[in-house]
Amino acid sequence: MFGKKDLNNGSDNELLKKNREQKNSLFEDSEDDVPGENNYLQGALGSLIGAFAGSVLWFLIGMVGFYASIAGYAIAFCAFKGYKYMKGRFTRVAIVINIVAMLIAFLTVIYLSYFYQIHKTYPEISFSVFNMIFPGLLRDSEVLKEVLRDLALGLLFMGLGSYRVIKDGFDFVRKREANQNVQEKPEIEEKSCVEESDTKESE
To answer: What is the mean pLDDT of residues 126-149?
Structure first.
């Protein structure tokens, strides 16, 4: 009922390769590296909007019955891009916010793809009617198995497509934290030397 095929071919990998430079630009020479007030709420909104925009590709590929990791990449890239566009500053919490936004978009697009498949067969079924009958469909063990299989495979390809974006995000945050520690360390050492000098003078 909901089964899809694997679209993990050379063209998919080539698209990922071509977009690698674009992906890195999310974090390199970024404005969010400039110290300033962080707005998680505004960034989360941008991330959610971006994730839904990226999920359009997942939906279009799903319409023809395939999975592709490039669709997972599109969701991740657009989520992080939306977060950055809304002036959210990348931190560890921000990365988690983006992952949550990606999962929300993923689950939503999977749900909409189920509606599309049923509506295509039974045009008289509206979205509101689908919302009412879908829980009943899940009571069928065969349907439930296919749904769980779709979710498992979808999460797999989502992970394959988004892994590098998420990893680059955490690497960027760690690098910035390390740079900040290096900058702060001389100040701490200088302060320590001044205090030590003052102590000797008082003696």
So the answer is: 92
